[in-house]
Structures are given as C-alpha cells and as structure tokens.
Amino acid sequence: MNSPEALAAALGEARYLADEDLATVVYLARSMERPLLLEGEPGTGKTALAEALAQVTDAPLIRLQCYEGIDATQALYDWDFGRQILHLRTLEAAAASSDTNALEVEATERSLFDERFLLARPVLQALRTTPSVLLVDEIDRADDEFEAFLLEVLSGWTVTIPELGTIRAATPPTVVLTSNRTRELHDALKRRCLYHWIDHPGLEREVAIVRARLPEVAEALARQVAGCVQRLRAEPLLKPPGVAETLDWARALERLGATSLDLDAASRTLGAVVKYREDTIRAREALTRILGT
User: Fold this and answer.
1) How many CB atoms lie under 10 A from the CB of residue 61?
2) In this predicted model, what pLDDT tens digit does every residue of 18-49 receive, in sequence order?
3) What φ, ψ does residue 64 adopt, rounded to 5°?
4) What is the C-alpha to C-alpha distance for residues 7 and 27, in angstroms, rounded to an integer?
5) Which secondary structure element, helix H or strand E, spans residue 40, and what is its range?
6) β-pair type (158-161, 165-168)
7) For residue 182, which phi and psi values (nearest 5 degrees)?
C-alpha cells in the first residue's frame, strides 16, 4: 500500500469505504509514523477504521478503552502480585532449610520483578509487538493526567519500567485515537497527531457502506433505510443515528424478512436506530411524515 489510492482499495476489500481525504490522512499517518486522531459523532466509523486497518496490514489490533479515572497502570503495565507471593513463599520454604546470606536475599528481591511476573497492558503490548495497530478508543473520556502520560509515550515510543529498564518500540505501532468530543483535548496532544473529522456520509456513500457490510440486504432496502436515516438526522434528536445504527437497522429488517421499509416495519425495529425514550417519540412522529400512514 504505497499510495492513498492503494490503501483505500485495500480498506474497501475489508468492507470499509474510505473517501479520498480519509485514505490520504491514514496513509500519511502510517508513512510519517504519527498517531492519527479521529473525531466525529458516535457511530461514524472511527473504531471500525482501526479494525479494518489492522486487517489489511495483517497486524494485531490492540485496544485501549478509555474511561474516567483510567491511569498509567491500566494502560502500561502491572505486576502479577498473586504469582509474586506464591514465588516468594516457595523461595522462603527453600531457604528455611539452609542459611541465607545477604546476597541471596537481594537476589530473591530481584526475582520478584522478573519478566515472567509482568502484566503487559495495551500500550506496552503495542510497543513490543511489530507490527501492531493500537486503538486508543474514546480518549476524550480520560482525564488530563492520562492524556499527558499518553503524549509522553507517543512522543518517544518508549516506556521505562524501573525494575526492568527502558523498552523502545523497534517499529512504532500505528496509533489511532478516537474522540466523540465530549471534551476538548489539549493542544499538545493534537499537535503530536494528524487529525481528521469523520462526518456522517452522504446518501450514496451510506448506501454503498450498507451494501459492502451487509451484502445480503437488497439494494432497494438499503437505499430506503439509508434515506430514512438521513432524514432522521435532520430531526432534533438527542443522539442522531450514525452509520452503525444504519447497519443495525438494515440487518434487523433483513432478519425479519422485510423487503421494503414501511411504517409498520420501521416502528417495530426502531430500537435499532434510536436509544433514548425522547428520541423514540420524535422518531415515530418523523417516520409518520416520511413513510406515511
């Protein structure tokens, strides 16, 4: 994949349809070894892009799901305290039958922080795996301290474990950070990354996405569903449906044996499209206008 066009074609074979701008920024992020920050409404395909990229590059996808309160321990590494305690008890039992000098005590302490007791978390796994795709999902849910830690790692592709030393990535992983923009990220992190906003697709592209991801859905039904979702996004909903909801809706209708989208089928499967009670009421009113009685 030595060009954006080749990358877009490969992603297409993985059933992810990337437009020219997105394919270009992904290609540049890989060739320049820079993290890629993707922002956009939920359900627009940010996470799916990382999954497709791992597939086409034949690299493992290593996912770090962010949440409020996450810290470096959950992202980087931890020690398996249970196994360390068992190891220590075994050594103590062996030493009870013999004299133990200071050097042996020191060796015992060092052995507790051996590689075999290290629990590698997603960031460390990605640095040690070549190649790999590291997905840092919903970075906007983490706090400022975690964002600063992540920036430090991404700046040098290294981490230091006091008991083991510095670990440096032989080849930097492809890093994809996603944000639903629940809060603004710091400029320092943004400057480190290449940036792209993923918007809701137009009608023709959304139909193409449904047909690519769900080939069992007839084109006429795919077009009706995509067109209806496009209209629903114009309504004052708390959470407008994304492409993920379009796919769920088309899949639900296909499972029910529907060949076209009418008001009855749309109403019965509305739970695939909207997720709030208030949105359900508004969506039903909108569907009555769109699909008729």
Assistant:
1) 19
2) 999 999 999 999 999 999 999 999 989 999 99
3) -115, 105
4) 7
5) strand 36-40
6) antiparallel
7) -70, -20
User: Is 90 exceeded by the pLDDT of residue 204?
Assistant: yes
In order of 26, 69, 142, the CA distances from 66 in angstroms are 22, 9, 6
pLDDT value of position 103: 47
Higher pLDDT residue, 25 or 81? 25
pLDDT computed for residue 106 by the predictor = 56
Q: Which residues are within 8 A (CB) of 125 and not within 5 positions of it... i.e. 6 or more apart?
A: 62, 132
pLDDT tens, position by position, 157-172? 999 888 888 999 999 9
Contact 129, 54 (CB under 8 A): no
Write b or e for each residue in 184-212: b if 16 or more Cβ atoms lie within 10 A of its Cβ, otherwise e: ebeeebbebbbebebebbeeeebbbbbbe
Write down the residue that tokens 């009706």 correspond to.
224
